[in-house]
Amino acid sequence: MVDYAICSYLLRNDKERFIIATKAFDVYKDKELPRAYREYLNR
């Protein structure tokens, strides 16, 4: 469910909220971000 919320920001190209959501949910705190997320952040 968390990935659904994070991905919705990615699809809407809302980088600010995407970053906030990835930090707020702490799902990837001790893990590497999925490739699609990393590529989006590096654009």
Textual characterization of the structure:
With 43 residues, this protein is mostly helical. It has one domain. The chain is built from three helices and no strands. The longest helix has 11 residues.
Structural topology:
Layout: H1 2-11, H2 15-25, H3 35-41
Helix pairs in contact: 1-2
Give the gist of this structure.
The chain has helices at 2-11, 15-25, 35-41. It has 43 residues and is an all-alpha fold.
Features:
43 residues; mainly alpha; 0% strand; globular
Give the structural class: mainly alpha
Radius of gyration: 9 Å
For the termini, the CA-CA separation is: 25 Å
Determine the mean pLDDT: 89
Number of domains: 1
Q: Which shape, going by the Cα principal axes?
A: globular
Helix content: 55-70%
Order of helices and strands: HHH
Strand content: under 5%
Question: pLDDT below 50 for ≥5 consecutive residues: which ranges?
Answer: none
Number of strands: 0
Number of helices: 3
Major sheet: size, sense and barrel closure? none
